[in-house]
């Protein structure tokens, strides 16, 4: 049995972007904190945007406290990300968790973030933080299909799942439930992967 009394608290993280290419940019990044709230940073690309209205709508849609910080471009988003990590995450007591961000055999979010940091000539904000990816654990241990008992007919997702998926913070909200141990949203990302031998769960946590 693994002793959990002194284990670290988990902070879920995700990004959204304009595309998959090296020259695409990050449009939103956010965290779910152990205290029970989400923090989003939006890159509006110079477009006028009402952050207070966005906070109200996200709170209504998700049912959780959400703070929104507006930045005019990707450089501003990366700078705000650095500040939020410095102000809100503790390298001694927090562990960053994500879904398909960077596993031993792949991942997307962290390599993409590194590329954008290199492009903008800024430091990676997560240096020194412990990190665990939930992709391999989820795909081996959790079913991503909604079915009725004894049949293969799909079941309509719960209202909470549907509500979360309609917000621009859907990636953050889905990570929130995953980090809490919920299996309801494990279908957030289901890109095909080659099967591989299971690894010891103790090897999932490592330095970014």
- Taking Cα atoms only, what radius of gyration do you get, to the nearest Å? 17 Å
Low-confidence stretches at least 5 residues in length (pLDDT < 50)?
159-207
**What is the helix tally?**
6
Structural class: alpha/beta
> Main beta sheet, described?
7 strands, mixed
Distance between the termini: 26 Å
Strand order of the largest sheet: 4-3-2-1-5-6-7
CATH topology label: Nucleotidyltransferase, domain 5
Describe the structure.
The protein has helices at residues 51-62, 74-88, 109-120, 135-141, 159-165, 170-179; strands at 9-17, 26-33, 37-43, 65-71, 94-98, 130-133, 206-207. It is of the alpha/beta class. It has one domain (9-188): Nucleotidyltransferase, domain 5, CATH 3.30.420. Residues 159-207 have low confidence and may be disordered. Strand 3 (37-43), helix 1 and strand 4 (65-71) form a beta-alpha-beta unit.
Please outline what is shown here.
By secondary structure, the protein is α/β, with parallel strands linked by helices. It has six helices and seven strands; from the N terminus they run βββαβαβαβαααβ.
What key phrases describe this protein's structure?
208 residues; Nucleotidyltransferase, domain 5; seven-stranded mixed beta sheet; 6 helices; disordered C terminus
Give the helix/strand layout:
Elements: E1 9-17, E2 26-33, E3 37-43, H1 51-62, E4 65-71, H2 74-88, E5 94-98, H3 109-120, E6 130-133, H4 135-141, H5 159-165, H6 170-179, E7 206-207
């Amino acid at each position: 049995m693994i002793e959990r009394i002194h284990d670290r608290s988990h902070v879920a993280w995700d990004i959204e972007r304009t595309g998959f290419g090296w020259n695409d940019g990050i449009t939103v990044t956010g965290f779910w904190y152990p205290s029970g709230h989400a923090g989003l940073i939006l890159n509006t690309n110079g477009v006028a945007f009402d952050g207070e209205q966005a906070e109200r709508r996200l709170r209504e849609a998700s049912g959780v406290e959400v703070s929104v910080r507006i930045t005019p471009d990707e450089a501003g988003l990366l700078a705000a990300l650095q500040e939020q990590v410095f102000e809100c995450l503790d390298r001694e007591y927090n562990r960053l968790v994500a879904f398909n961000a960077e596993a031993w055999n792949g991942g997307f979010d962290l390599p993409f973030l590194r590329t954008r940091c290199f492009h903008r000539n800024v430091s990676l904000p997560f240096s020194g933080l412990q990190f665990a990816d939930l992709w391999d654990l989820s795909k081996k241990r959790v079913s991503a299909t909604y079915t009725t008992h004894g049949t293969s007919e799909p079941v309509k997702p719960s209202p909470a799942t549907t509500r979360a998926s309609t917000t621009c913070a859907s990636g953050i909200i889905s990570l929130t439930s995953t980090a809490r141990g919920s299996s309801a949203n494990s279908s957030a990302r289901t890109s095909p992967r080659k099967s591989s031998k299971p690894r010891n769960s103790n090897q999932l946590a490592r330095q970014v």
